[in-house]
Amino acid sequence: MEDYKQLLFSKSYINGEWVSGSSKTFEVLNPADGSVIKKLSDGDGQTISLAIEAAHTAFKPWSKKSAKERAVIMQKWFALMIANRESIAKIMTMESGKPIHESRGEVDYGASFIQWFAEEGKRLYGDIIPGYTADRRIMVIKQPIGVVGAITPWNFPLAMITRKVGPALAAGCTVVVRPSEETPLTALAIAHLAEKAGFPKGVFNVVTGMNASAMGKVLCESPLVAKISFTGSTRVGQILSAQCVSTLKKLSLELGGNAPFIVFEDADIEAAVKGAIAGKFRFSGQTCVCVNRILVHENIYEDFTARFVKAVSAFKPGNGLDETVNIGPLINSKAISRVEAFVEDAVSKGGKVLIGGKKMNEQFFLPTVIGEANQTMNFAKEEIFGPVAPIFKFSTDEEAITLANDTIYGLASYFYTNDLKRSWKISEALEYGIVGINEGLISSEVAPFGGIKHSGSGREGSKYGIEDYIEIKYICIGNIE
């Protein structure tokens, strides 16, 4: 294992070399205390163009390798991530603020996509289709799409990269990663490990910089880039989609969420409380599948709420490097202001602050529960992305479904019940790409992750996750006597 300081880099990684994007630099801050972790070279559109050209040059030889050859390198990369788990986790906690135990979990989770797709790349089977005449034979083969641009967010500095580049690399594509300027250090650390694993120059590139819009525009409009995979806000997803129109790129979009968590009258209340805690307060509520609205049947509302508030009161906020901390800071001051506004809006519309409701200091917002939530409050329609849990009340299954689906988003949803028939009916009625039944943590490399409506398109992970990185080619052989 390398010491975490040996995994801290300050330049973009392009074509197997560490490249200064420009004479400008930017600072990566620790959100727990505002301290500077490192100054990085500030890449721009020209830097991204260099990376695209490198990936384009590397594409043909990489795509010509067998799936097994690519898998050997990917498995080495996976092993290096696991071997350096503690150092990567420390870097991740320093730049994102998430508690160290969550960062360790993310290293395992993120690395799992590399391991999974290393094997899945060997199973990109085609088909032999019966000919439509006696002298014809029909084959279908699958080929890599080309250069992939991966634009990733700050909340999962490793997993959002590996979930995209794992299937891309396994299929034979080359990649250009543009990580968030808030958390680029984890991306650069795994780029170093990718080099050690043996990826040829230009296959895996990482470009860091502050000007996200300029770099995203270059990726979207470049004729050398065949596909864009983006995780982030719906607003930015719409902008990227528009920028891709001229080149008709393939797009995978994992966008905003507004996850409902429904607790039916027959649910195991203690299990539901544990699931809601896990689903709401992971990384201080800063994930796209975090519970946004808790909907509780009126007959168990008081019991559930009392137990939930008690569980929330046990949280310990602080610097994520402290092993006893389970709630870290929000990513920046804008996030604090956004969460404050949600609470103020809720209180002005009849909501009751049952615990928390204010910031602890300039970096931390206290874990918060809002009782008597209603549909007029802003978080009924908008994603909170913070440690605020509003609890709504419902009386019938039909009302619960209506409330749950009353949003433009459709990523993750959750519900708790012990009724088998209800499980089927509610699962089918919920307008979401992911449904968790009696479970608050649903992400895995073996399962398809993605949403519908304004939460995006495409799936990541599982056997379905590699499909967006291939082209299907039909081959007809004629005049066979």
From TrEMBL:
It comes from the Bacteria. CDD domains: ALDH_F5_SSADH_GabD. The keyword Oxidoreductase applies. One of its GO terms (molecular function) is succinate-semialdehyde dehydrogenase (NAD+) activity. Belongs to the aldehyde dehydrogenase family. The gene is gabD. Keywords: Oxidoreductase. InterPro entries: Ald_DH/histidinol_DH (IPR016161), Ald_DH_C (IPR016163), Ald_DH_CS_CYS (IPR016160), Ald_DH_CS_GLU (IPR029510), Ald_DH_N (IPR016162), Aldehyde_DH_dom (IPR015590), Aldehyde_DH_Superfamily (IPR050740), Succ_semiAld_DH (IPR010102). Pfam families: Aldedh. This is GabD protein. Residues 18-475 form the Aldehyde dehydrogenase domain. One of its GO terms (biological process) is gamma-aminobutyric acid catabolic process. The keyword Oxidoreductase applies. Its EC number is 1.2.1.16. The active site is at E254.
